[in-house]
Each structure stands twice: as structure tokens, then as C-alpha cells.
């Protein structure tokens, strides 16, 4: 499946709407194992993405992804800003070669791993992105698969980021960045894959 410029724009506008809708919930999740700002960080960042994208009349995939990256890097603050920013910057670079969705999201995952040095099982957004990349490789990404990946962060002990400071206490809580990434991919399913 190809990510056209129009679909990329629709995807990210849908993501913004989901983040605004669940802003308080994301901050509550972060309050439990971090500093309680993930919802407001992402709401501010995706609002800036929306402002940038609404200026683009004829969306082109690489440009949409790059505008998203720049907005997220400059406006999110916190660990998640540069991580989501790296993901979208790598996707923008890759989009100059291919607009295949699996390859784009895989490049995004590599961007996150390169920037944050987290791997699968560390209880971060990587635990959503990695299974999503695997599902996309099989053309089998569904909302159920996304929910399963997000929920699987609950029993994990955080090894990266602020949540790692609370150690054992992070066990039993969802990872906020894994949840916000879940909204990103639910939006992808809705706008692009269905
Ligand atoms: P901060 O922790 O600086 O307040 P946020 O609350 O916005 O930033 O984001 C926290 C989220 O960032 C975590 O829930 C986790 O998913 C993600 N995260 C933190 N560190 C890393 C990392 N090294 N690699 C991948 N994701 C990370
Ligand atoms: Mg936080
Ligand atoms: Mg913070």
C-alpha cells in the first residue's frame, strides 16, 4: 500500500484529533510512571503539525512527513518530541525513494531506535512500533493488533526514559508513548489502510 500526499495529510490530521481527544488520559498515564506531561506535550506538538499541514494545498508525501517532523521536534518538548521527530524525519527521507507504507514505518522505527537506543521490551513507544512494522510486512495491520501491542506494555518494567526511574513501580502501567503511538497507527488504519 502506498502513502500518497493526500493520505499522509489525512492520517496526521486524524492523529491530531485523537491526541486532543485523549490528551487528559495520556497525561494521567504519564502521571503514574513519569511526570504527567505526555498528553499536553503531544497536544501542543500535533497542533503545530496541523498548522503546518493546513498550509500545504497540494500535499506531497515527503513534504508532509518533513513538516510533521519539524513541528514535533520544535514544539513537543520532553523525550517524545525528538523521538517522534526522528521517526518522521526518517520517513520523510525514505519517502523520496519509496512511499510503500511498510517501508516508511520501518524507517520511522529505525529513527526512534537510533535516537533513543531502546529495544523491544524496554516499555517505550518502540513496543508499539515494532509489532506494527511486523504486521505491515504481512499486510495485516488491524486495530486489534495495535491494541494488543499497546496492552502488552503493561506487565513490562521500564528500562528507558523517565519511567525507568520508578523501576518496579512501572510494572502494571501502560506506557504513555506506546499509547500515543497506538493512536498514530489507529489513524493510519482509518485513513489509509481501510
Ligand atoms: P518526558 O518523559 O520527557 O516527560 P513524554 O512524557 O512526552 O516525555 O514522553 C514519554 C514517552 O517517551 C514514554 O512513555 C516512552 O514511550 C517514550 N520514551 C522515553 N524514552 C524513550 C527512549 N529512549 N526510546 C523510545 N521511547 C522513549
Ligand atoms: Mg512526561
Ligand atoms: Mg516531561
From TrEMBL:
Self-association and partners: Homodimer. The dihydroxyacetone kinase complex is composed of a homodimer of DhaM, a homodimer of DhaK and the subunit DhaL.
Gene Ontology molecular function terms on file: glycerone kinase activity; phosphoenolpyruvate-glycerone phosphotransferase activity
Domain DhaL: 6-190
EC number per UniProt: 2.7.1.121
Organism taxonomic ancestry: Bacteria, Bacillati, Bacillota, Bacilli, Bacillales
Signal sequence interval, chain numbering: none
Catalytic function, reaction form: dihydroxyacetone + phosphoenolpyruvate = dihydroxyacetone phosphate + pyruvate
InterPro entries listed in its UniProt record: DhaK_L_YcgS, DhaL_dom, DhaL_dom_sf, Dihydroxyacetone_Kinase
Annotated pathway: Polyol metabolism; glycerol degradation
Keywords, comma-separated and alphabetical: Glycerol metabolism, Kinase, Transferase
Protein name (database record): phosphoenolpyruvate--glycerone phosphotransferase
Domain of life: Bacteria
One Gene Ontology term from the biological process aspect of the record: glycerol catabolic process
GO cellular component: cytosol
Top enzyme class: transferase
Function field: ADP-binding subunit of the dihydroxyacetone kinase, which is responsible for the phosphoenolpyruvate (PEP)-dependent phosphorylation of dihydroxyacetone. DhaL-ADP is converted to DhaL-ATP via a phosphoryl group transfer from DhaM and transmits it to dihydroxyacetone binds to DhaK.
Amino acid at each position: 500500500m502506498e502513502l500518497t500526499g493526500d493520505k499522509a495529510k489525512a492520517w496526521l490530521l486524524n492523529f491530531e484529533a485523537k491526541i486532543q481527544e485523549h490528551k487528559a488520559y495520556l497525561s494521567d498515564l504519564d502521571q503514574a510512571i513519569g511526570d504527567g506531561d505526555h498528553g499536553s506535550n503531544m497536544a501542543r506538538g500535533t497542533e503545530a503539525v496541523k498548522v503546518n499541514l493546513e498550509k500545504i494545498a497540494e500535499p506531497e508525501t515527503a513534504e508532509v512527513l518533513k513538516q510533521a517532523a519539524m513541528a514535533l521536534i520544535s514544539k513537543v518538548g520532553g523525550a517524545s518530541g525528538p523521538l517522534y521527530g526522528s521517526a518522521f524525519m526518517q520517513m520523510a527521507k525514505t519517502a523520496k525513494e519509496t512511499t510503500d507504507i511498510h517501508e516508511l514505518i520501518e524507517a520511522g522505527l529505525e529513527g526512534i531506535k537510533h535516537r533513543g537506543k531502546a529495544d523491544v521490551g524496554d516499555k517505550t513507544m518502540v513496543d508499539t512500533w515494532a509489532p506494527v512494522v511486523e504486521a505491515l510486512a504481512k499486510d495485516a495491520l488491524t486495530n486489534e493488533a495495535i491494541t494488543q501491542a499497546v496492552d502488552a506494555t503493561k506487565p513490562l518494567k521500564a528500562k528507558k526514559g523517565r519511567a525507568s526511574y520508578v523501576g518496579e513501580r512501572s510494572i502494571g502501567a501502560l506506557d504513555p508513548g506506546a499509547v500515543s503511538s497506538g493512536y498514530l497507527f489507529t489513524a493510519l488504519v482509518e485513513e489509509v489502510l481501510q
